[in-house]
Design a protein that fits this description.
Two copies of one chain form a homodimer.
Chain A lengths: L11 E3 L2 E4 L2 E2 H8 L4 E5 H14 L4 E6 L6 H7 L5 E4 L2 H10 L6 E3 L6 H10 L2 E4 L2 H14 L4 E7 L9 E2 L9 E2 H13 L3 E7 L2 E2 L4 H22 L5 E3 L18 H12 L9 E6 L1 H4 L3 E13 L2 E6 L23 E3 L12 E4 L8 E6 L9 E4 L21 E5 L1
Parallel strand pairs in A: 4-22, 5-6, 5-15, 6-7, 7-8, 8-9, 9-11, 9-12, 12-14, 14-15, 17-19
Antiparallel strand pairs in A: 1-2, 2-3, 4-16, 10-13, 16-17, 16-21, 18-21, 19-20
Helix pairs in contact in A: 3-4, 5-6, 7-8, 8-9
Chain lengths: 410, 410
């Protein structure tokens, strides 16, 4: 048997059936029409937002990085609950605008922005987080051409990283942002070029479960923003401190306690360097807000034995849940939390089973030798932590299977 | 510097511009309208088909596994040139039928076939490669309900594997097929149940570059098919020997010489066990037929320096070429062959560069510290080996970027 990650604390059963947002999983599948199905429970997202607001100083804005889950109904529900959206492409710009988020509360990061994307962003009036001097030059030229004052921030590749992150985004040669020692010159050039300079974007890492590492990085981030601003000689309207809040996906992962982070930020804001006293601050979270709110439901097509090992074959797979298969930035495959939705409170059988997707490839493995109750054809398998980097971060067209359904419980 | 795989031998330059199918890469981009673009050269596919026909005994049919690349125009061109299509879903069934391939030349494998997929396949008259006893029961029941005689083969999980394969599909507990010791009983049950038994499907591994390993496995496969057929007491109409022919993707990979495989197969067919003397045989190839025919063209958006390292940022990325980023079943990331299409014959600069996609994630790396000629904004980067498991095997919706364009040179 191999262990699996912890089932998020939001889920319980009624007469054996997993409840999501108070509804039985099977009736949700009926409502959506079929499996495979992503269900997103807005109440869990809102609970995370409340948790954030309770723990963080009121001066820290909350931005949602929509790349984690750009499902249209989810974005619409987010407007009014978070203070801004962070986007990563022209396509996400269109989604953000369609959701009703105010353009001035949208910021656009991404290392390879095409001219048509810069143009659309400047025209809409969203903030562009510049990733290089060349991008800055292109943005100014485009703004000049279309006769708009561009809102430009500078993304900084910090000279430190967020230790223990799932993805390191700073502390070395990186494709993101400009190196700290060139960031002030770029900001100054943009101001001199007539741009509305919006401040700094500093993103040192993501998916981190260590509050002390996050506190240390945020302290270093504020100090770096102050140093850079002093060099520019101007107060940045906004300092985006990045994200980094992680979720427990795997065995042994300990949930992140964000309260000490809020206490440390509060004290940092009390003793800000002069140049930042009038700045706004934001944290940019994606996964942490929506990851636990999603459950992927997929039906058992076959239960088969091969050489004494039991395989549960489901109608979903890595084409919808690439990350759960271990093929999305992970080196060693580990098990996401999995359960039988319609037998949620039945104890596990003694023999482990392997849950595989319907794709004709050995990498389509959703649960490797996991402990589940006895499984039958037609059962519903639930894979948790499916709210972020699921439906849109998977190769949906692979092998010609249907796209997953999505359902938001608002 | 880190090495990259060998550029396939089909490509040359004219006045510095990479030629694909005799056309300059830049003019192909103009024709398609924009980058990112997959170009598929049917002449290379046809050369591979000829190479197969020249090397293999005439009695060995050639099937194309369309999962490797189901681009509609490519499938249409394949009809009449290969002897059958192998499909892996109801969606691929629709594509195969739309291409004009005859239903009796289509076979359907895949561990999680839903009832609606079995029903469509039986109705169309394609062969279903049964993956389990349960699937066999469901197929018979559905055939009975719709009043058709189902064409059923049995997929066998062989008791050996194809040594040195990129993906092992046999030789242990597997979700594919039924274990060899139960395969004959399943075939017998299907015959007794009124099915049109089509024979065996044995797939021991894929992406293999060792002709001796392939020869050994094919010998074992024929012997196993004979043993199973003797137990059933019937000659299988078709023995699908699987695939396994690999392509050189990475540094040090040596191209597979298929001629000794043909010689060995010829001799195996000369001395077939009695029960197989009237059988047909097929090899099922995907990647080997189309992989080298594809080039992914993506434009340089930015050239940037971070801490002394040069990053080339392009408008494509892992959302189109997941495999090239090392996030599709590979443990250690290695470099696919890459070139500057519009400076194809310029010698490499002395300093290596890192080619990254436009996605805002550190895993979007298409070439890690590779040797390229000096690169400028607007240059076209070519990533080779893009004909198989590219466009459809990548998370196209990730981060909201446009889908890649595709162009077939037929």
């Amino acid at each position: 048997m191999k262990p699996m990650g912890p089932i998020p604390p939001w889920f319980a059963a009624d007469e054996g059936m997993l409840l999501i947002g108070g509804c039985g999983a099977a009736s949700l599948v009926d409502e959506a029409g079929d499996t495979p199905l992503f269900v997103y429970d807005m109440a869990i997202v809102e609970a995370q937002i409340r948790r954030f607001r309770d723990a963080m100083p009121g001066r820290i804005d909350l931005h949602y990085a929509i790349k984690a889950n750009p499902y249209a109904a989810l974005l619409t529900h987010m407007v009014g609950q978070v203070d801004g959206f962070d986007i990563a492409s022209g396509g996400e710009l269109a989604m953000a605008l369609a959701s009703g988020m105010a353009p001035h509360a949208i910021s656009f990061a991404g290392p390879g922005k095409r001219d048509d994307e810069l143009s659309a962003a400047i025209f809409a009036g969203v903030t562009i987080n510049l990733e290089s001097e060349g991008e800055g030059r292109r943005a100014l030229a485009i703004a000049d051409r279309i006769g708009k004052v561009p809102r430009l921030a500078v993304r900084v590749n910090p000279d430190f990283d967020l230790k223990g992150s799932g993805m390191r985004m700073g502390g070395g040669a990186k494709p993101f942002g400009v190196d700290a020692d060139r960031a002030a010159a770029l900001a100054r050039a943009m101001i001199d070029g007539g741009a509305d300079w919006r401040g700094w974007h500093l993103f040192a890492g993501s998916q981190n479960l260590d509050p002390l590492a996050i506190i240390e990085t945020q302290g270093a981030t504020i100090a770096l923003a102050a140093r850079l601003s002093d060099t520019v000689g101007a107060t940045p309207p906004l300092v985006n401190l990045g994200g980094g809040f992680g979720l427990p996906y795997f065995p042994g992962d300990v949930p992140l306690d964000i309260r000490p982070i809020g206490v440390a930020l509060d004290s940092a804001l009390e003793s800000l360097p002069d140049i930042l006293t009038d700045s706004h601050f934001a944290l940019e979270l994606g996964r942490w807000l929506v990851g636990e709110a999603g459950v992927y439901l997929t039906r058992v097509i076959d239960v088969k034995i091969s050489q004494g090992e039991t395989f549960i074959v489901v109608d979903g797979g890595l084409h919808h849940q690439l990350a759960a298969s271990g093929n999305f930035g992970t080196v060693v495959r580990r098990n996401y939390p999995i359960a039988i939705a319609n037998r949620f409170d039945t104890p596990a059988a003694s023999d482990p089973v392997t849950v595989v997707g319907c794709l004709c490839t050995p990498i389509d493995r959703l649960g490797d030798k996991v402990a589940l109750p006895p499984v039958k054809e037609g059962d519903l398998i639930a894979i948790f932590l499916a709210g972020a980097y699921g439906a849109t971060a998977s190769p949906a067209a692979f092998l010609g299977h249907p796209s997953p359904r999505e359902l938001l419980l608002g």
